[in-house]
Design a protein that fits this description.
419 residues, alpha/beta, 10-stranded mixed β-sheet, two-stranded antiparallel ribbon, 12 strands, 39% helix, elongated, binds iron/sulfur cluster
């Protein structure tokens, strides 16, 4: 039977202002670069901003592509702030110092909402980051961006996609962010979607998830002056949750409290749901060129993968998991990237631990068989096989029998001669 999760009003939205981007990052899930076909005009975007405020969204993260490349991005942010929304931004940081005046103006607005946080994507130390982003000098521009933001008193965050290239740099990055006075650091493990498919060797795989979770737990226990936290891609119902999450994991919130809007007006539960598909994306519930946001949100059957979750459809380790009803297979986007369905998430730490335990048990069984065979060989070395088993020889050669055998030997075969 389906578990019905009743949506209220969405409280958080990630809004892609444009798919245009000056970078061609190796891990970009949405192949950002050029604008999407049908990106909305400023007038339409301001109308969407009003609709978002009307529907009750409290927090909006402006993203892209590169949101700072969207003309008049600050007018959209201002409209949201004036309508009482807390606005954040995720940028690649390349144009941050060029836009600092606009950010300072937004921060100074006297309005019911506010500019809450400016985050930049940082994927390693200088060399690693620039290689990943494929734009020399981008790390230096980010560093300058944090300095300008800090001086302007704007709350800052860093977002790192953990790959095989930077997983060994996490300790150094932590020190780097603290020296830059970054306020918060979000860590996420790479998904295998979008441009990342061209670089499978960079994927840390499910085992990397546990490494990242333990790193976050440790930094929190050490009480560093930076808030380190995970994205939604980890922290599903393990003993580490109290050390890495603000509260218990309640399952993917796409279409329940979360919302994603693409630059062409497509509405999804979350922008991370298969962002590379420009057409026929199964997670698009409607388009703002054609419908009002409230109608899309309230459309019967919309966001069914979360609102009408079917436990019987769960696959893999999730199908047997005791947390299934609460967790609903973890992050839907991560599960979909990995398995082509939202109902099976091999990136879950519990699933990975189960897989690893099975692998070790199989190895243990193999070693047991090998050990038994070696033990047998050892016994044979110590007690080589004899023509007659010891027990039978001992039993049969009684003193009486020995005397009779001796008499036979003496008389018949050797004719009384003994050598
Ligand atoms: S196995 Fe699946 S249902 Fe269970 S905690 Fe992990 S992701 Fe959630
Ligand atoms: S798909 Fe993943 S990132 Fe998006 S809301 Fe669900 S859990 Fe969060």
């Amino acid at each position: 039977m389906a578990i019905t999760v009743k949506p209220g009003r969405p409280s958080h939205c990630v809004w892609e202002l444009t798919l245009k981007c000056n970078m061609r990052c190796k891990h970009c899930g949405s192949y950002a670069g050029k604008d999407r076909v049908g990106e909305m005009t400023l007038e339409q975007l301001l109308d969407v901003a009003d609709q978002l405020a009307d529907i009750g969204v409290k927090r909006i993260t402006l993203s892209g592509g590169e949101p700072l490349l969207r003309e008049n991005w600050d007018q959209i942010a201002q409209r949201l702030i004036e309508r009482g929304v807390r606005v954040g931004m995720i940028s690649n940081g390349y144009f941050m110092t060029d836009n600092i005046d606009k950010l300072v103006r937004l921060k100074a607005l006297k309005a019911p909402g506010c500019l809450e946080v400016v985050a930049m994507s940082v994927d390693g130390l200088r060399e690693t980051h620039d290689d990943f982003r494929r734009v020399p000098g981008s790390w230096d521009r980010i560093k300058a961006g944090y300095k300008a933001l800090h001086e302007a008193g704007i709350y800052t965050a860093a977002i790192t996609s953990v790959s095989n290239n930077n997983i060994k740099e996490l300790d150094e990055m932590l020190k780097m962010f603290m020296s830059w006075k970054v306020n918060a650091w979000q860590l996420q493990t790479l998904f295998g979607g979008g441009r990342m498919r061209e670089f499978p060797e960079l994927m840390p795989g499910p085992a990397g998830v546990e490494t990242v979770a333990r790193f976050i737990a440790q930094t929190r226990l050490n009480r560093y002056p930076i808030l380190v936290f995970p994205a939604d891609c980890l922290g599903f119902c393990t003993e580490l949750d109290p050390f890495i999450l603000e509260g218990p994991w309640q399952g993917c919130q796409a279409g329940i409290t979360a919302l994603g809007i693409e630059a062409n007006g497509n509405v999804k539960g979350c922008l991370s749901l298969c962002p590379e598909l420009q057409e026929n994306n199964p997670f698009v519930e409607g388009n703002l060129h054609e419908e009002k946001l409230i109608d899309i949100w309230n459309k019967p059957g919309a966001f069914a993968y979360n609102r009408e979750f079917e436990p019987s459809k769960a696959e893999g380790f999730c199908a047997t998991c005791r947390h299934l009803e609460r967790c609903r297979c973890g992050c839907s986007a991560q599960a979909y990237f990995a398995t082509g369905t939202v109902n099976n998430n091999p990136y879950c730490m519990l699933a990975e631990r189960d897989r690893k335990a099975k692998e070790l048990r199989a190895q243990a069984e193999e070693l047991r068989c090998k050990a038994a065979s070696l033990e047998k060989q050892a016994r044979q070395v110590l007690h080589p096989e004899r023509p007659y088993p010891q027990r039978i020889v001992r039993n049969r050669v009684t003193p009486g029998r020995r005397a009779s055998v001796a008499s036979i030997l003496n008389s018949r075969f050797f004719n009384g001669k003994r050598s």
